[in-house]
Amino acid sequence: MSWTYLVVAGLLEVVWAYFMKQSEGFTRLIPSLITIAAMIGSFGLLLIAMRTLPLGTAYTIWTGIGAVGAFVVGILFLGEQISVTRFLAAFLLIAGLILMKLSSNH
């Protein structure tokens, strides 16, 4: 169950990153409230996952999901450019996440 909490925490990290961008420096109310709620949910689920998962594994997976997810959301919804170098960087992050999961005893 810890892995499920961790994945959802990582997805919520993507949500809060996107809505933080949409909040325009916390000057727009609804995106700001969504950002704060998603942050609380993300940190809360990370906290629960870290009860049984090692710190290094949990934190790396959480930030990795957030980083790759924000990369994808930026391309799909914010018109950010994709290049071979950026795609390769995302691929390497995903490979690192898979290796981190495979190396975990949990």
Automatic annotation (TrEMBL):
Q: Enumerate the UniProt keywords alphabetically.
A: Cell membrane, Membrane, Transmembrane, Transmembrane helix, Transport
The record, for Gene3D superfamilies, names: 1.10.3730.20
Q: What is this protein called?
A: Guanidinium exporter
Is Coiled coil among this UniProt entry's keywords? no
Q: Might you report a single GO cellular component term?
A: plasma membrane
Q: Which GO terms describe its biological process?
A: xenobiotic detoxification by transmembrane export across the plasma membrane
* Residue ranges crossing the lipid bilayer per the database entry: 33-50, 57-78, 84-102
